[in-house]
Amino acid sequence: IHKDLPDSKINDPKNAQLDGVETLVFNGYDEALGDTFEAWTVYGGKLYQISGPETAEKLIIETLETWNWK
After folding, report:
1. Average pLDDT of the chain, as a whole number
2. 20 φ, ψ to 5°?
3. Residue 41: which residues within 8 A CB-CB, separation 6 or more?
4. pTM for the whole thing?
5. pLDDT confidence of residue 8
6. Torsion over CA of 51, 14, 64 and 57, rounded to 10 degrees?
């Protein structure tokens, strides 16, 4: 992430699983959203970035727990 987006903020990074795929979750910052909660993962050779306002962290986690790659 820092290689492609060197100004990115990555706070409190943690490893997680998204339907069995290694995923990085962290708190960040986006000019449009403000403080964010984000999940970044690679699946099928593609990078996926799931992000939303930090206030939606619980909803994002609940959604990710039901994620199914099909």
Report:
1. 92
2. 85, 0
3. 18, 21, 22, 23, 24, 47, 48
4. 0.87
5. 84
6. -50
